[in-house]
Every structure is written in C-alpha cells, then in structure tokens.
DNA sequence: CAAAATAATGTTAACGTACACGCACTAACA
DNA sequence: TGTTAGTGCGTGTACGTTAACATTATTTTG
C-alpha cells in the first residue's frame, strides 16, 4: 500500500495554492501550461488519488439510481431482491433508487421508460436491455446522456455501459452441450427448441446456441442437431412429440431460454418413451417443478439476485468510491439438478 | 432512505454544544444524566448514525489486518487470491494486510502464530481455525484481545467472531447423499472413508457425515453405510478394494474432505468393476484430474477464493463502514462435474 | 498610455466528525 | 484561605476536497 500525496502537499511541493492544484486535477482550465505540467508531475510521482472520504464529505450528494427491469416474475423478482439488498446495505451512503418496471414485453414501453429515465437525469442506471432494439431512438438518447449504465442479463453495444453483469451465454451453451452429451452410448437426436419468432433475433439465445454447436464441433460422435422454432414452423406439441417418437432415437433437448417448462408440461408423460434428457435455463417455479419430477434434467442458474446486487455494487464503486469497474462481470455457470435444487438460495 | 441528523443539528435542538453531543454519543462521560437523555432522544428521533465519510476522514487511520491461513496448496492458495483481490480493490481505503502462513499442520504452530498476531494488535483478523484446539491458550488470548475475527472455512466457538464465512457442512453432507443415491435402482454399499485419526475429531468432517446420514434417514431404500478410517483400522488400499469387491455390490463412496484423490489413485483402474460412484470435496489439482477421468463423479466446491474475498469485505464493512455484518455467511453448495469443471473460475 | 479585459493564481469557508484543551464551577480538605 | 480534583460544559482545530470568490499579473484595446 503506497502512501498517497494530498492536494495540500502537492500545492506545497509545486509552490502554488491548493486552488490551482484543484483546477489542474479537475481540468477546469485557467492554469498556465507550465504550472499544469508541474502539478501533474508531482501528483503522479506522489501517487495521488483523491481521498474518497473527503470528497464525498464535501460533495454531500445523494445519488439517484434508476433501475429498469421487466415486471416481476419469479426470475426478475430475484433481480429486484438483489438490488434492494444492496441498496439497503449501502443505505447510509445516500443512494436513492427509483425502480421502473416493464409490464408488457414491448419495445414501445421500454423505450418510453428509457426516455423518462434519461429526462430525470439519474446518476446511474441499471438496465435489463431485453425487448430493446439496439438502434432505437431511446438507445441513442441513452448514449447521448452519458449516464453510466449497468447492463444486466443481456448485452447490447453501448459506449457508456460501465459494466455488463451476467453470464457468458456462449460458454453456457458449450456447457449445455457437455451436459447433454455426457455418458454417450448410443446415437441420439439433439433438439434445439425455441418458441417465438422473436427468439430467432435474440442475441443471448443465439449465443447460447452457438456455444452448443461449438461444443459439438469438437466431439467425435456428434449427434444430429435439429433446430425447431415452434411459431415459425407452426407446429403443435403433439406433432413435435410424434415426430420425435417416429425417429426412434433417444431425445435430448436444449431450450436456450427459461421456457423449458413449456415442453416439460407436454412431455412429462412420455419422457420414458422418448428417453428424454433436457437442459433449460432459470430457476422459475414452473421449471423447478419439472426438474424435481425429472422431466428437466439440468437448469442453468443465472443467479439473478446476484446480478441485481452486483449492479448496484458496481454503481457504488464507480460513483462513490471512484473505482475502476470491470467491464464484464461474468457470473459462474451454475448447474442445478434435482439434487442441489433445495440448497441454492443465491 | 430516511434523512439523517448530524451532530451539529442535535446540538442545536438539544441546546448544547457539539462537544457535549460527542461525549454522549461516545459515552465519554462528563455529561449530566438529563442532558444525556435529551441528546440521546433527539439523536434517536433524528435517526442519527455517524457519517462514514466524515468519520474516516477525521480518523485518517490505516487499518491493520492479519490473515492466518495454512501454507499454500491449491485449495488454500485460492483463499489468498480472494483476500488479495479484495485488498487491492479496497487499496485506497488504507488497509494494510499482514499474511501469516501455517507451514506445518500442527497445533503448536498455529498457536504460536496467534500469539504473535494478538501481540501485534491488528484491527481485524482473518483466521482459518484448522488444527486449532478450541480450549487452547491461544484461543483464550484471542478472546481476551477483543479483536474482531472472521473465521473462514471452519467454525469454532468464539465470542469476538464477527462472521463465519464458509459452507454449511451439514447441508453439504445431505446434498452428497442426494448425489450418491440419485438414480437408485439396485442395492449398493455406501462407504464413508476418512484417512487420518485426526479426521475423527474434526468438526467439519463430522458435520458432513451427519448431514449424509440425515439424508438417508429420510430415504426409503437406504443402503448399508460402512464407515472406515484408514489409519484407525490400519487398512491398506488394496485390502479395502478387495473387501469392496467381495461384497459384489455397486460401490458408492463419500469422502468428507479434500482427499478423495487418495482413493481415486488406487481405484481408477477398477472403477468399472466396482461400479464406482464417488463424491468428494474441493477443486484441488489432484481431484480435478480424477474428476475428468471419471473416477470421482462430483466435487463439492467450497469457493475458497470467494471466502477470502468476503472475509476482507466483512472486515471492511465492520471497521470502515461501521456496518452490521451477518454472523454467518454460507456460500452456495456448488457441485462440480466433468461438465462444468472448466467453467468454474470462482 | 491608461483603462479595460483576460489570464493566472491565491484565499477561504464549508462538509461532519473526533478529540484535545480550556473554562467555570463545586466540594473536599489542608 | 488556598489547593486540588472532579464535573459539566463549550471551543477550536484538523482531516482532504471543492468551489465560490478575491486578488494579482499580463495582455489587449481605444
């Protein structure tokens, strides 16, 4: 731990007043180039960084944070819990949170909310950028606002994004490949099932599927991969199951989002017959049920609560502590099975 | 976020000086009972808590932390990494860490070190209390010192323990039961293997085994549980394997500490024959190897790096931020299999 | 060349807390 | 009567930073 020089000491060494030093350090101008250089040199040599305590004491500012998340369901409610836990912990540090929630899964709504949030000029934003078109005017406004944004769950390109907090979607796909292929003994069919048309354009889903495919590129007995989008192919569940059965091979299913219970509902009766193994995402109630009854074998847990907590923590570190924040904070790929389901309260 | 009253404001409302308020709040005496009561009332009503920034600015203190961990091996080195990461992150907050390491697994050494540490009067201690007798004079000294201690990995009774950070050993044993019993189809033998005599008195190991047993109390087709301590029974590995084979039942093994690789080394040749399934602890290199080759099926990851990180974080919250810290911080029970081994960098 | 404009720098008062110090007063005791 | 100890208070200063304000030097302009 190197000692740190103070403004006062810099001023003394540079033979100027602390006001001048302050102007240099904050780049407020009105300083001659020579003085500026001298001050900067001494600051650097002295390992200067501003004293967090003095700074915040003086500023005595309440930080306004905006949190934009989808309407509560058992996945997103966890994000909120994490956020609230963090805010409660950092309570004494004068943060003031305003939560916005997306009731409808529509692009219009999220754009409206972003506009509102930007207008309110918070000091930081936590945003789950789902249903959000990268090139929409709202995103433009976000960029222009310069407000630091923490993206959770999904990623979009954003210059003022301070940090992305979530899983590495590609790696989670690769890992799913491993889970599905494990214990290979006979040829099987691998189904990748999506439901809505929108899923086809979702980057996170795409990355998960790419990861899966990447895994099988490196594997010897690669199975046949059958991708089906239910809406696109206008296929019913009974039809799907029929099709699976006629091929007479064990069925392994990858559902790259949280809707694996859609399938599980239909398949739990015939899972023996299908020789089913299924991997899905997220510990929502419906999925948990089918994990317990064995229709779903693995769920990949995205640790939503942790995501929410870390989002606020990142803003705290950036705004209050003036710290560098890691651009990407990948959370561990957490495999949940019937066996450890009851022990994961993270 | 409730607004918080300041000392100055309390002074004004109570019609006394700041100094008096200060004496009341710090219980320095020299205040009449009536004044004291009045000040306390107003402070409480005003939701007073000291301003972290002003406090630390004024105190301008370097905090000395002592970290006592066993000598580096691939498990404990992770603790150190976590500790160092946290110290680096909180660097600007003037913490100064002194690391002590236990070269030998002896009670004498750890007691000597504790004595040394207590004499140095650090502001906080991180301690892995293994090889440490609860009633030893060193522990007494620790108690008397009143220095806040963070216990990691294992727990001992200690009044000045600020927080325990580690796994819930009992629950991890229960979960192991689930992992071993999963997919029950035929009767099997369940071996609980320990190695040294010392293991018989280790509380963490005991709790894990109790958890396992607790699981099987609730299960229908409970297997025969065979507990073996290799040192106590003076048994060789070939002898053990011989014994397992003659019983002609599938073998499932629970190793309640990180030494599962001891067994794996001997058994990886005959694992088919034994119909072996094994659950162990900790991602040390030797274990990872046998996880990959299939001799060990599951490893329970204790997230040592996270433990180290959280330990420092807890001290930071207590010492610098004046926060309440949770007495027990249980880390999630993380199951590592061949499939997700490569993705767990936590 | 003086006045006005601008550039460069200095001064100072907070922010909320901790703590050393000092003042006024009382009571006890020599 | 003076000395001393103790009690109940108030005052002052410092911590490092920020930013408004004041002052001085330098250049520009009519």
TrEMBL record, chains A, B:
Q: Which UniProt keywords apply?
A: DNA-binding, Transcription, Transcription regulation
Coiled-coil ranges per UniProt = none
- Return the SUPFAM superfamilies for the record: lambda repressor-like DNA-binding domains (SSF47413), Periplasmic binding protein-like I (SSF53822)
This entry's Gene Ontology molecular function terms read:
DNA-binding transcription factor activity; transcription cis-regulatory region binding
Domain HTH lacI-type intervals: 5-59
**PROSITE patterns xrefs:** HTH_LACI_1, HTH_LACI_2
- Give the matching CDD domains: HTH_LacI (cd01392)
Pfam families, alphabetized: LacI (PF00356), Peripla_BP_4 (PF13407)
The source's domain of life comes to Bacteria
Q: Which InterPro entries match?
A: HTH_LacI, Lambda_DNA-bd_dom_sf, Peripla_BP_I, SBP_2_dom
**UniProt-recorded name of the protein:** LacI family transcriptional regulator
């Amino acid at each position: 731990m190197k000692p740190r020089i103070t403004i006062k000491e810099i001023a003394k060494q540079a033979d100027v007043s602390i006001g001048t030093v302050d102007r240099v350090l904050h780049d407020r101008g009105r300083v001659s180039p020579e003085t500026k250089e001298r001050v900067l040199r001494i600051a650097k040599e002295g390992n200067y960084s501003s004293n967090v305590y003095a700074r915040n004491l003086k500023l005595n500012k309440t930080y306004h944070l905006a949190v934009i998340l989808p309407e509560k369901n058992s996945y997103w409610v966890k994000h909120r819990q994490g956020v609230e836990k963090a805010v409660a912990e950092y309570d004494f540090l004068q943060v003031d949170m305003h939560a916005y929630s997306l009731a409808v899964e529509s692009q219009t709504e999220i754009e409206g909310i972003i506009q509102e949030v930007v207008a309110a000029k918070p000091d930081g934003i936590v945003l789950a950028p789902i249903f959000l078109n990268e090139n929409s005017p709202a995103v433009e406004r976000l960029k222009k606002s310069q407000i630091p944004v923490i993206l959770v769950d999904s990623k979009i390109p954003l210059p003022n994004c301070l940090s992305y907090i979530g899983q590495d979607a590609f790696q989670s796909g690769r890992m799913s490949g491993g889970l599905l292929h494990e214990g290979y003994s006979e040829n099987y069919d691998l189904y990748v099932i999506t439901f809505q048309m929108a899923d086809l354009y979702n980057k996170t889903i795409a990355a998960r599927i790419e990861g899966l495919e990447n895994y099988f590129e490196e594997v010897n007995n690669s199975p046949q991969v059958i991708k089906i989008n239910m809406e696109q192919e206008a296929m019913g569940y009974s039809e799907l199951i029929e099709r699976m059965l006629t091929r007479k091979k064990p069925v392994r299913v990858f559902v790259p989002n949280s809707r694996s219970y859609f399938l599980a509902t239909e398949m739990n009766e015939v899972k023996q017959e299908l020789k089913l193994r299924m991997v899905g995402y997220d510990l929502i109630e419906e999925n948990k049920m089918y994990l317990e009854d064995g229709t779903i074998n693995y769920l990949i847990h995205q640790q939503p609560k942790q995501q929410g907590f870390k989002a606020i923590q990142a803003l705290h570190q950036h705004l209050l502590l003036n710290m560098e924040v890691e651009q990407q904070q990948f959370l561990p790929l957490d495999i949940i099975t019937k066996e450890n389901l009851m022990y994961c309260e993270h």
